[in-house]
Each structure stands twice: as structure tokens, then as C-alpha cells.
């Protein structure tokens, strides 16, 4: 029954986790229309009309939504840059003032064609640091596609409709390539390691905290510190150790990211800020996993750890705009707030989500810290009960052994108090010494057997008492120390 129950628990758990993480990615491309890109036509000419015509052909669930706004709402491209920086839009597309007139003149005048600059026509603004693999395909690639479609629409529409002939190679060059879409990237993030910042890095940090927590628990279990050390002192020491460990661990993580940044434009100030945010996140998870081991039954601790990892990673896989609305529950998980904070740091403030990310992180820190501290008192209480129980069990076994020995001594006294015939006794000693030795050995085996039965009965009663009034406490996963004093002596 126990094997069957655990079989079902684990199967349903992992089935649910697989459904949860795959559900967040389900029909991802059909949610791309939830990504809004603002479009401003500062030119007001045929190029802007070509863009709108191309968008009408491309518009659909798998294409970002183009939101047309008046130049009065965004007087300059700097205003568009600020709107994207404040995450009001995922991107911005604009046509430069006078672009249609310059292009039309270049198509009809060879001299103007020679001086024509096809890079001063159309541009888009975006932030590659925000979910880099996603925005590369959903924003950048889509706007490049829109620009190409607009070029075709311009060539077949009113833009070149009045042109009857091409004058010279310069004009032909302009006709073949009327504009090149310019990319204004707030924070270029093209390095290969960007793909794991919000996935594998998160998982490794969580596993890192779990294993060291097991090492600390092994230390406390080995030396029985919960039973003999003041709880307040344990709280202070455990938090000092966890803060030091996560401090160094987060430094190693961010140093590795920096070491493999591959030309990524980030500076020392961003390094320090990223280190601080990672440190806070790591310590939150150390305390949270510790809370799991304190308050959950031991069989459910591994299940809770795996679920915690999946919930956190899922909250960072995609922007919530590309996942079903249910997955906005991911706002409550520390990993999501960590990633939002890192994006804000790496893009120099162009992801202003700290007004909710930091309060959520500090709330997790406070709740986990209090729960972990209360857990220390709980562990100390049950450790004392466990010590008392061990003393009681030892006393019961000792009493049983003493009582058994006293009964045996009394029986021996009664046996020796009976009168014996001197001649027979002397004859017995003289003629059968080997038999006496044999009887002595048999008597020892009998005594051992009777004593083992008594102690076994005591152990059975103790186990029943423990099951009836259990004082067991989960001290969490405990691993043997790699380099202990005893291990060094054995070597």
C-alpha cells in the first residue's frame, strides 16, 4: 500500500508539473498580438501609408499589434524611446519627417538620387535585454518583415506610380533599395549565454541552496546542537552562515555571467547591483527551502522542492503577454521579480518594475526569515523531547535487564539453598567435570536467550509508545560532512 501510494503521488505530481510548464508555452505564437508596438508617422506621406497597408496584410494573432499614434503624442523619437524604456510598449516604429518627399525626389532626379540617404527613412526602437530570445523573433524579426512588406507596397502603390522612367544608375539603386530599416536597440544582448539567464541559472541557484542546507542540517544532527544550544544563538549562527554562503554563491554566479558576457555592454555598477539582487534571491530560497523542511512531512519535502523550482522557472520563461492569463500568478514567485530586477539593471533603468519587484522580494525574505526562526524553536523543542525519550528508553532497558538479573539471582539462591548429598556432590565433581562445563555453557545461552526476549519486549512496547505519541520532528535533509574531524582521523 505504501509503495502504491507513493507511486501515485509522484506520478500525479510530475504530470501536473509537466502540464503546468508546457501550458505556459502553449500556443505562444498565437499570443504575439498581445505585444504592442507604437507607430508614429512623422512624415505623413506615402511611406507611412505603405507601412499601414503592409500591416493590414500581416495583421493577425501571430504578429505584434501596431498601435498608430499621432506625432503630437510623441513629438520626437526621444519620446518614443522613453515610452519603450518605461515598458509602455514593446517597441516603437516611426517614419522620419520628410522621408517620402526625399525619396520621391531621388526617384525623379539623378542628382538628388546620388545624395539620397536610405538610412534616414524608417527606424524602430526596442530593448533586447527584455527576454532576448523572445523579442528577437517576436519584435525585431516582425518589424523587419513589416518593413520589407511596406517596401513592396510602396513600389507597387502610389509611391512609384507616377514614375515612367528611371534616370541613371543612382535612381535605379534608390528604386531597388528605397530604405533600410534602422534598429535602435536600448540594450543589445546578443551573447549566447542570454538563453539561460532565466532558466538554468535559476535552477542551479535553487539546487545550490538545497545542498548546502543539507550540509548544515547534517552538522547540527551530528553534534546534536538543537538539544544543547540556545535557540536564539542557533538562529543568529544559521542566518550568519546562510548570509555568508549566499553572499559568496551569488558573487560566483554574477562573476560567471560577467566572465562569459562576450562583449556585452555592461559596467561595474551594474555588476554590483546584480550581485546584490542575486544575493537577496539566493537567501530567500535558502530560507524558503528550510521552511519546507521544517513544516512539511518528510515525504513531501522533495515534492515541494521540485514544485518550487518549476513554479519559479515557469514564471521567467516568457513574458506574461505570451502566456495564458492564469500564469500571471507568477508575479508572486521570487524568480520573476529577480529577472525583472536584473533586466532593469542591465538596461540601465529601462524596465521600471522595481516598485513591485523589490517589495515582493523583501516580503518573501521577511516571511521566510520569521518562519525559519520559529522552526528553530520547534526543532529545539522536539530535539529535547527526543533526548528525554532516549534517556527514558535507556532507563527502561536498564531496568528490564536489572530486573531480569535479580530474578535470576533469586532463582540461583533458591536452588543453592536446597540440601545436597555430600557423597553424590563429590562424586559428581570428580567423575563429570566436562559435563559441568557443558552445563555452564548451556546456562549462559539460556540466560542470553531469556534476556534478549525481555529486551525485545521492551523495544516493542517503546515502538508502540512512539507511534501513539510521536515526538518526531523533521530536521530536513542532512548530508554527511565532506571534511570532518572524524573523517580526517580515519584517513
Please characterize this protein's 3D structure:
- With 491 residues, the chain is mainly α.
- It has two domains: 171 residues, abc type-2 transporter like domain (abc type-2 transporter like fold); 194 residues, no CATH class.
- The protein has 17 helices and five strands.
- Strands 2-1-3-4-5 form a five-stranded mixed sheet, with helices on both faces.
- Strand 1, helix 2 and strand 2 form a beta-alpha-beta unit.
- Helix 1 runs parallel beside helix 12, helix 11 packs antiparallel against helix 13 and helix 14 packs antiparallel against helix 16.
- The C terminus is likely disordered.
Strands of the widest sheet, in order across it, are 2-1-3-4-5
Q: What is the end-to-end distance?
A: 44 Å
H/E element sequence: HEHEHEHHEHHEHHHHHHHHHH
Gross morphology is: elongated
- Indicate the low-confidence ranges by residue numbers: 486-491
Strand proportion, as a percent range, falls in 5-15%
Helical fraction? 55-70%
Please count the beta strands (DSSP E, at least 2 residues each).
5
Structural class: mainly alpha
Count the domains.
2
Total number of helical segments? 17
The radius of gyration computed from the alpha-carbon positions, rounded to a whole number of angstroms, is 39 Å
Biggest sheet features: 5 strands, mixed
Report the average pLDDT across residues: 84
Amino acid at each position: 500500500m505504501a509503495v502504491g501510494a507513493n507511486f501515485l503521488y509522484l506520478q500525479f505530481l510530475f504530470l501536473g508539473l509537466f502540464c503546468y510548464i508546457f501550458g505556459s508555452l502553449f500556443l505562444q505564437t498565437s499570443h504575439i498580438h498581445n505585444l504592442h508596438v507604437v507607430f508614429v508617422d512623422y512624415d505623413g506621406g506615402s511611406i507611412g501609408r505603405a507601412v499601414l497597408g503592409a500591416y493590414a496584410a500581416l495583421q493577425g494573432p501571430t504578429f505584434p499589434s501596431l498601435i498608430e499614434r499621432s506625432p503630437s503624442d510623441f513629438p520626437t523619437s526621444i519620446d518614443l524611446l522613453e515610452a519603450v524604456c518605461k515598458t509602455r510598449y514593446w517597441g516603437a516604429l516611426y517614419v522620419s519627417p520628410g522621408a517620402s518627399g526625399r525619396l520621391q525626389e531621388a526617384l525623379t532626379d539623378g542628382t538628388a538620387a546620388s545624395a539620397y540617404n536610405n538610412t534616414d527613412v524608417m527606424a524602430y526602437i526596442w530593448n533586447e535585454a527584455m527576454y532576448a530570445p523572445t523579442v528577437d523573433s517576436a519584435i525585431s524579426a516582425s518589424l523587419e518583415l513589416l518593413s520589407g512588406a511596406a517596401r513592396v507596397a510602396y513600389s507597387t502603390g502610389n509611391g512609384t506610380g507616377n514614375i515612367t522612367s528611371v534616370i541613371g544608375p543612382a535612381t535605379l539603386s534608390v528604386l531597388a533599395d528605397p530604405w533600410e530599416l534602422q534598429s535602435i536597440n536600448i540594450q543589445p544582448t546578443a551573447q549566447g549565454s542570454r538563453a539561460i539567464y532565466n532558466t538554468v541559472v535559476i535552477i542551479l541557484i535553487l539546487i545550490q541552496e538545497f545542498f548546502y542546507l543539507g550540509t548544515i542540517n547534517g552538522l547540527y544532527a551530528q553534534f546534536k546542537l538543537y538539544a544543547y544550544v540556545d535557540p536564539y544563538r542557533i538562529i543568529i549562527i544559521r542566518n550568519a552562515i546562510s548570509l555568508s554562503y549566499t553572499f559568496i554563491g551569488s558573487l560566483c554566479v554574477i562573476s560567471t555571467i560577467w566572465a562569459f558576457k562576450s562583449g556585452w555592454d555592461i559596467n561595474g555598477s551594474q555588476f554590483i547591483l546584480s550581485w546584490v539582487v542575486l544575493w537577496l534571491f539566493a537567501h530567500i530560497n535558502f530560507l524558503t527551502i528550510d521552511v519546507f523542511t521544517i513544516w512539511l512531512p518528510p515525504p513531501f519535502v522533495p515534492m515541494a522542492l521540485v514544485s518550487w523550482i518549476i513554479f519559479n522557472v515557469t514564471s521567467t520563461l516568457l513574458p506574461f503577454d505570451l502566456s495564458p492569463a492564469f500564469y500571471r500568478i507568477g508575479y508572486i514567485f521570487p524568480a520573476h521579480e529577480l529577472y525583472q530586477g536584473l533586466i532593469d539593471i542591465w538596461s540601465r533603468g529601462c524596465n521600471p518594475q522595481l516598485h513591485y519587484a523589490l517589495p515582493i522580494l523583501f516580503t518573501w525574505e521577511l516571511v521566510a526569515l520569521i518562519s525559519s526562526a520559529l522552526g528553530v524553536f520547534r526543532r529545539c523543542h522536539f530535539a529535547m523531547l527526543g533526548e528525554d525519550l532516549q534517556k527514558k528508553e535507556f532507563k527502561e532497558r536498564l531496568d528490564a535487564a536489572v530486573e531480569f538479573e535479580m530474578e535470576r539471582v533469586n532463582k540461583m539462591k533458591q536452588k543453592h539453598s536446597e540440601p545436597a548429598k555430600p557423597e553424590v556432590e563429590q562424586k559428581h565433581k570428580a567423575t563429570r567435570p566436562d559435563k559441568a562445563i557443558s552445563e555452564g555453557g548451556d546456562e549462559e545461552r539460556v540466560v542470553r536467550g531469556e534476556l534478549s526476549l525481555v529486551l525485545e519486549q521492551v523495544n516493542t512496547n517503546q515502538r508502540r509508545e512512539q507511534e501513539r505519541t510521536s515526538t518526531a520532528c523533521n530536521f530536513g535533509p542532512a548530508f554527511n560532512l565532506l571534511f570532518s574531524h572524524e573523517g580526517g582521523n580515519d584517513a
